Amino acid sequence: MDEGLLREIDGYIESLFGEQDEALRAALEESRRAGLPEIQVSANQGKLLHILAAASGARRVLEIGTLGGYSTIWLARALPRDGVLISLELREHHAGVARRNIERAGLSGRVEVRVGDARERLAELAGQGGVFDLIFIDADKTGYPEYLEWSLRLSRPGTLILADNVIRGGAVLDAEDEVSRAVRRFNRVLAEDPRLSAVILPILRERVDGLAIARVRGMPQS
Questions:
Q1: Structure pTM?
Q2: Domain that includes residue 38, residue range
């Protein structure tokens, strides 16, 4: 499909449902000024994350990959007043930008950004017996298969596990590079793991991508 048409369709949907308010626009602008890569979810994806979190009744959310906190804001706004969102970010600079954006959105009381290697932070959460109602994976793609295993350890029956960028403009079909091969393995596990009921929803931006949506249907094995 033509790239221009993809952008037009995405823009049309965003004009109807994107609902970007001042805090969300400011988060994008602050991230640009701070030199963060512009790889955050789109407004349409943000709205979808918000709807899924709200519809699932999530009270505890885990986000793997914070960047500037744009998706964090969408997710945290779906939480009840006593809800909690923990977001894991590798880089302190990114985490600082995200914390400012989250504070501006009035969500600091619900969100904690933890800095460090995601695998180490995930191991800590598992060691503490952490269980989450929704987990959103949007970090380094080569880590996706491992992040999925950690997510299952931190889940309960009914937990939603979401992951961005799982089609990569069709690169997963040929999987000629390391990143695409890792995402392809991740997608295969989603399809075959008996603990999960999953699907990939195509997403339109400047190219076709996808959001994986999985529901844990059995108690994860340790």
A1: 0.94
A2: 3-216
